[in-house]
Specification:
alpha+beta; Alpha-Beta Plaits; 4-stranded antiparallel β-sheet; binds magnesium ion; 37% helix; Dna Ligase, domain 1; 14 helices; globular
Length: 428
């Protein structure tokens, strides 16, 4: 099998960049975007970062800086970010044969086989320029043989301006040079707790994790960290489902194997995405305060009428209950659904993620209107997750179709001559 190559495309200061795009007068002004109820800083422009404004800081702690430096404040506008995200992803989808949306502002691209056409670095620059030209947002691109290294390449592209925002890490010697400079806590999937435990074992830099004994990692941590170490050595082994959940949002979306023409079928798909996204949410011990749903037709099929729409809602009380999330997702879907289109893709995004301590009680909530009230919700959800983890029989939400419905059905498929780098016709 051919060695795969991934690119991670990640927008720079995404929320802040979206806001600045529509306010050219603030091009050089420090700005910050605030969380629900304007409580904490959730995004900073590069000028605000340079002033030392920290992520997550309550806005009333930085009153002095705001006055002194004229920092502009924005409440979070998830409808805007959702739509801008959608535009970025559409541009990426036109440039690579496979795009996996990882969060609202990042996606993995499959570049396998591309080197026959152009250098990875050139391709990365093309992506960066095209997104900027089409959407107006700055991105960085990291390219590598594994997802974990592509994440790391992207980190370097952001951190070192001399790279011009594109880092090609396909050369093993270059991988090792970078690994030696990066703290282990910056590696994808290595959270604070793991990082502390690793440091206690004298594993401080990423290269020390790459060189650590695999069976020790498996025994003392998990098979996931063992895979991370393998990935740092250029061996791809992170199946998509095991990718660590993103920090700020959780996205679950897919193109349909067959176009969908009815609301009922879209409801099944959206229920499925909402349920999977909520499962990931619980896996990370988090609660979502906001959710977004999008649907769209296939923009490359020019013979059919086009429609693309997204909608989002803020939850009065953050939740990790599949029933609550699914219900909201279906309400959003019904509000944007229009008859008479051939839908090719939809997705659900969860945002405003917090841990249990960040969940505020809803004054008006009673068990009668919210089935998730009380500890019963947590028990039910953990039983559901347990069954889904340990057994082959899966428990689904009532409206949800099994995952097979959304898998690609393509039993009689000829090569993708014009859309897959690895399947280009070869002329001798
Ligand atoms: Mg980003």
């Amino acid at each position: 099998m051919k060695q795969p190559v991934f690119a991670l495309v990640d927008c720079n200061n995404f929320y802040a960049s979206c806001e600045k795009l529509f306010r050219p007068d603030l091009r050089h002004t420090p700005i910050v975007v605030l969380s629900n109820n304007d409580g904490c800083v959730v995004a900073r422009s590069k000028e605000a970062k340079a002033l030392g404004i920290k992520m997550g800081v309550p806005v009333h702690h930085i009153k002095q800086e705001i006055r002194q430096h004229g920092i502009q404040l924005f409440s979070s506008n998830y409808t805007l970010y959702g739509d801008m995200s959608h535009r970025v992803m559409m541009t990426l989808e036109a440039m690579a044969p496979r795009v996996d949306v990882y969060s609202i502002d990042e996606a993995f691209l499959d570049l396998t086989g591309l080197e026959r056409l152009m250098s990875y670095e050139n391709f990365g620059r093309q992506v960066k320029d095209t997104v900027y030209q089409n959407v107006g947002l700055p991105v960085c691109v990291g390219i590598a043989p594994t997802r974990t290294l592509a994440k790391l390449a992207n980190y370097a592209a952001k951190k070192y301006p001399a790279t011009g925002g594109v880092v090609d890490l396909s050369d093993p010697a270059r991988q090792r040079r970078l690994l030696a400079r990066v703290p282990v806590g910056e590696i994808w999937g290595v959270g604070r707790k793991i990082s502390e435990k690793l440091q206690a074992m004298n594993i401080v830099t990423a290269i020390q994790l790459a060189d650590a004994d695999l069976s020790t990692l498996r025994q003392r941590f998990s098979v996931v960290l063992e895979r991370t170490a393998r990935e740092l050595n250029g061996v791809p082994c992170l199946p998509w489902e095991d990718a660590p959940p993103p920090k700020k949002q959780i996205m679950c979306s897919r193109s349909f194997g067959q176009p969908i023409h009815s609301l009922a079928n879209l409801e099944e798909a959206v229920t499925h995405f909402a349920a999977r996204a909520t499962e990931k949410l619980r896996g990370g011990g988090q609660y979502a305060g906001e959710l977004m749903v999008f649907i769209r037709t296939n923009p490359f099929k020019t013979t059919v009428p086009q429609y693309s729409q997204s909608a989002s809602v803020r939850l009065v009380k953050a939740s990790q209950d599949s029933r609550v999330i699914v219900q909201h997702a279906l309400n959003l879907l019904r509000s944007i659904y229009r008859d008479g289109y051939e839908y090719s893709k939809s997705g659900v995004m969860l945002g405003e993620l917090t841990d249990a301590s960040g969940v505020q009680d809803d004054l008006f909530e009673t068990a009668a209107i919210n089935p998730s009230e009380s500890g019963r919700s947590e028990r039910l959800m953990s039983v559901m997750d347990e069954i889904n983890r340990k057994t082959r029989a899966k428990v689904y939400m009532a409206r949800e179709a099994g995952p097979a419905v959304y898998a690609m059905r393509r039993g009689h498929l000829s090569p993708a001559y014009t859309t897959a780098w690895g399947e280009l016709p070869v002329v001798w």
